[in-house]
Amino acid sequence: MEHEMRAEYAEGGGTGEERPVKNWHMVRGEGTRAMCGRELGEGARTRSEADWGRTEEPFCHSCGALYLREVP
Hints:
By secondary structure, this protein is α+β, with helices and mostly antiparallel strands. It has one domain (3-70). 14% of the residues lie in helices and 25% in strands. The chain has 1 helix and 3 strands; from the N terminus they run βββα. The chain has one helix at 61-70; strands at 3-9, 21-28, 46-48. Strands 2-1-3 form a 3-stranded antiparallel sheet. It comes from Streptomyces boetiae. Residues 1-26 are annotated as: Disordered. This is GATA-type domain-containing protein.
């Protein structure tokens, strides 16, 4: 199963690509529901799962734990 990272944005930030990322979450496939259950915006920025652990912003702890159980 493929995964991708999807952004959760900080409240009251900018717009579009300039919005500050509060947390990164992991989603299955190209979905919008994070592995932790949070629903993320369809237009939220995405990154490859290969970027997991390589972001300045924090990564959702719950998504990270579930992701590690699914990948070899």
